[in-house]
Write a structure and sequence with these properties.
single chain, mainly alpha, two-stranded antiparallel sheet, globular
Length: 519
């Protein structure tokens, strides 16, 4: 007879194939699990709470995201894994390494700041229970994805992060633009998912496994008759993730989606949604497909050049007096920034040196300052719902600290002092391209950085111009009137501002942290 199971363990009979997973490491999976459990708790509590008590849901969600962030502390050694195969303990479906922790910190921190931006909106304009459930559910999927080390878990995590986002975009009931934005986002994402699943099925047919490390081994020795199938699978998987990262020419959904979505949701998509796509792209290319670097390396290099060029040129053409031009500029700017993020991943195909740390460093910098810019945009939208760039004229006269913060965020995105962290991040990405021998891509990046300087500096200058005196220009801007800002929104601006200043004062912190986040 087999021995009785000891306390705290479950007796499991391993099948002949040896595919049964081992016991679960609950500490390792705590961050996404906490977010998911709090999401379910909010969904149930929303059914019973009276309308007057609905604000409690916001603080419950914020506390849940903070707890998920704190759950990263016991994992800081980066040496835990779970859901491993009995036959091969080295093949695990969930790995909490340094790369995982860095991305989980980014997405959970981004979700927490999004929660602070959303507290006021859920009191007035958005259904509280649905919003907080969807936000935490998406954050749980985003936190699961960087730990995924098999294609099945990766695709499931990607969809768990994406599906609630569709509903978040269309949550402004009765708003035609919100519904249209949600539909465009949904159709583009469903197309991306279909292409990704087709590519994954081709890869599985070629290798007979779903674990990323085992795929890398099997692709080194694919039978000749399956070579074309394997290459097609790699290419289709890349196309699917290109949709998720908003890489050109798969970026068409971005501006309309950002404009139609509630501003906190647009901020969430610009940071957390982008981090999800790039994390998945890193995992499938660097971990699963290293032997096909000759396929995905040139493709990503071309995508990087095209994406940064399209994003910056479109941002350059935004008219400051057009309705929602501020959000549109941030949307196109995020497309351009996606091009920069693609550069180190493409460089990883050509260089044995660690290039992924450059992407992580840039993503961390971008997350802090872009969320800060959206936080200021949310504050300005309270008095100027059209959110034109022209509405920011004279902001220094009414809110000097907010104007200084916005100017700092824009200079960080441009890579100019005093936004030192933006400059350092761009230098790291530029160096990755040069070290990999992609001189032409470094030149394209340099040209695009110069192009981006114009529209970032133009917006920065508007902040400090004198308000127009004409009565038809920007109503209340001509007479400085100060409106009380909600405390959560002020806190979000303060946190991102302080984070940006600290990182600019000590850029080596984020660079050292990012460059040690290897698999």
């Amino acid at each position: 007879m087999p021995p009785a199971p000891t306390a705290g363990h479950t007796a499991l009979a391993a099948p002949a194939g040896g595919d049964l997973v081992q016991t679960v490491d609950w500490v390792a999976i705590a961050p996404p699990t906490i977010a998911a459990v709090v999401a379910l708790a909010i969904l149930v509590a929303d059914l019973f709470l009276p309308r007057a008590r609905k604000p409690l849901l916001a603080w419950t969600a914020t506390a849940g995201l903070a707890a998920a962030l704190l759950a990263l502390l016991p994992l800081r050694a980066g040496d835990r894994a779970t859901f491993c195969l009995v036959a091969d303990p080295g093949a695990c479906s969930y790995t909490a390494d340094h790369f995982t922790l860095a991305i989980q910190f980014l997405v959970l921190g981004g979700a927490l700041l999004t929660a602070l931006l959303s507290v006021t909106d859920t009191k007035k304009n958005l259904p509280a229970g649905e919003f907080w459930f969807l936000l935490l559910a998406s954050a749980a999927g985003a936190a699961l994805l960087p730990a995924s080390r098999d294609l099945a878990t990766l695709v499931v995590a990607l969809e768990v992060a994406s599906l609630p986002a569709f509903a978040l975009v269309g949550l402004k009931r009765g708003d035609r633009m919100s519904g249209e934005a949600a539909l465009k986002f949904f159709l583009s994402s469903v197309t991306a998912t279909a292409v990704t699943l087709l590519g994954v099925s081709f890869v599985y047919a070629s290798t007979g496994t779903l674990h990323l490390t085992e795929i890398a081994q099997q692709l080194d020795d694919v039978p000749a008759q399956l070579g074309t199938l394997a290459k097609a699978g790699v290419a289709l998987t890349l196309v699917g993730f290109a949709f998720k990262t908003a890489a050109a020419p798969f970026h068409f959904w971005v501006p309309d989606t950002y404009v139609g979505a509630p501003l906190p949701v647009a901020a969430y998509l610009s940071v957390v949604g982008k981090a999800v796509g790039f994390t998945g792209l890193i995992l499938v290319t660097v971990v699963a497909f290293p032997s096909y670097a000759d396929v995905w390396g040139p493709a990503l290099a071309v995508l990087a050049a095209l994406t940064m060029t399209v994003g910056n040129v479109a941002a350059l053409r935004q008219v400051s007096t057009r309705a929602w031009s501020a959000v549109r500029l941030l949307a196109w700017s995020s497309v351009g920034q996606a091009g920069y993020l693609l550069v180190p991943i493409a460089a990883a195909a050509y260089s044995r040196d660690d290039q992924i740390g450059a992407t992580v460093a840039y993503a961390l910098m971008y997350a802090v300052v872009n969320l800060g810019a959206f936080a200021v945009a949310a504050l300005v939208a309270r008095t100027h719902p059209a959110n034109r760039i022209a509405d920011y004229r004279g902001l220094y006269a009414t809110r000097p600290v907010t104007a200084l913060a916005m100017g700092f965020f824009l200079l960080c995105l441009a890579g100019l002092p005093p936004g030192i962290i933006g400059l350092f991040a761009k230098v790291v990405v530029f160096s990755a391209a040069v070290d990999a021998g992609l001189g032409w891509l470094a030149v394209v990046m340099a040209v695009n950085v110069v192009v981006a300087l114009y529209y970032y500096l133009r917006w920065t200058a508007i902040l400090f111009r004198a308000p127009e005196a004409a009565p038809e220009a920007a109503e209340a801007v001509a007479v400085p009137v100060r409106h009380r800002a909600p405390a959560p929104l002020t806190t979000a601006i303060a946190l991102t501002g302080v984070g940006g200043v600290l990182l600019s004062g000590y850029p080596q912190l984020v660079l050292r942290f990012a460059t040690t986040t290897l698999f």
